[in-house]
Amino acid sequence: MSAPAAEPLVIDYYTDLLCVWAWIAQRRIEELATRWGDRVVLVHHWVDVFGDTEGKMARQWADRGGYDGFAAHVQESAAGYEEAPVHADLWRSVRPTTSATAHLLVKAADLVASADASIKLALALREAFFLEGVDVSHLERAMEVARAQGLDEAALKDAIASGAAMAAVLRDYESAKSQGIKGSPSWVMNGGRQVLYGNVGYRILHANIEELLQHPEQEASWC
Q1: pTM of this prediction?
Q2: DSSP code for 63
Q3: CA distances from 160 to 2, 61, 91, 164, 166 (A)
């Protein structure tokens, strides 16, 4: 009699759609899927980093060049990652007011279509923003991306109008707070006992995942 299949490793993955480091991490997500297949399940969540971009610029970038200073920072951050190009106009002439619009639309897609559809829409919105310079904080422009993905616009709008999509976004934001998520991207493993945050290299992710897959019984609390 064959042994039962091992349970997959579930990773809660928190990002903000406008975060350049999450954009850079996209390639690592693809590598994880290629390497581990269905042995690793990535559950996508949103965290509020760019919920109020004007306020963020005033608080954190007022003495560092404001939007233009932040635009230069984003370009410099992505410069070493050829797989994550960034449109030259981002944060200069293209200044999204919030990431919440995109988060809302992706949650609507999850509700009316599927988790896979929502993940594909999230990537399409990221590509529209980072590659094409589309202001995805504008609902109609974000909706154009959703239509191009073949999603039902009327159903998406119903999920938004009913408040169901907003409730789902707020659940993610609250979950991020309750788990002490510091920013984007964050990888939460081992029942919340292990958190990797920021520009984490693929080798570090691989090593942590491999250890948890090989020795899950050793990861419980010793107390």
Answers
A1: 0.90
A2: T
A3: 47, 32, 27, 6, 7
Distance of alpha carbon 99 from alpha carbon 139, whole angstroms: 11
- Burial category of 150 from C-beta neighbours within 10 Å (exposed 0-12, middle 13-18, buried 19 and up): exposed
Residues 7 and 35: their CA atoms lie apart, in Å, by 17
The single residue listed with the structure tokens 């995109």 is 102
Q: In Å, what is the CA distance from 58 to each residue of 52, 67, 99, 100?
A: 10, 9, 17, 18
In this structure, the strands spanning 40-46 and 186-189 are unpaired
For the segment 132-164, what is each residue's pLDDT rounded down to a tens digit?
A: 999 999 999 999 999 999 999 999 999 999 999
The token pair that represents 1 in the structure block:
């009699």
Whole-number Cα distances in Å, 107 to 2, 59, 65, 87, 165: 39, 28, 34, 26, 5
